[in-house]
Amino acid sequence: AGAAHAAIGFFLALCSRDFSVMLGLFMAYMIPLTVPSILQMLGVINISEWVLMITPSYSAMMMISAAVSGYDAAKVIAASAYLCVLTLVLLRYVVYPRFKKVSVRG
């Protein structure tokens, strides 16, 4: 879970020119992908857990809660696999090429 969020952070940092742009990109990421998970956890909205599984924050939250309470094995395995695939895809095809371009630019 940590590697996926680190890859997302690297992506946001490499796509921004300065700190204020990075904050804007971070908020653009947080609102659609993290707020629904928090609202689901608080019981404000009712969305299927499988639909929320596409958000990295909900997948990570599901894995953390499975460590301390009862869990559904299929959901934990799906969350783990999703976060691993997301990490590999982001680092290999998005972050690494962007890092090479930005590091040459200086």
Shape: globular
Runs in which pLDDT lies below 50 for 5 or more consecutive residues are none
Mean pLDDT: 92
- First-to-last CA distance: 30 Å
Radius of gyration: 16 Å
Q: Percent range for helical residues?
A: over 70%
* Tally of strands: 0
Helix and strand sequence:
HHHHHH
The major sheet is characterized as: none
- Number of helical segments? 6
Class based on secondary structure composition and strand pairing = mainly alpha
**What amount of the residues lies in strands?**
under 5%
What is the compact description of this entry?
This protein is mostly helical and 106 residues long. It has 6 helices and no strands.
Secondary structure layout plus pairing:
Layout: H1 2-15, H2 19-33, H3 35-42, H4 49-52, H5 56-68, H6 73-105
Structure write-up:
With 106 residues, this protein is mainly alpha-helical. Helix content is 82%, strand content 0%. Helix 1 (2-15) crosses helix 2, helix 1 packs parallel to helix 6 (73-105) and helix 5 crosses helix 6 (73-105). The longest helix has 33 residues, at 73-105. 13% of the residues are buried.
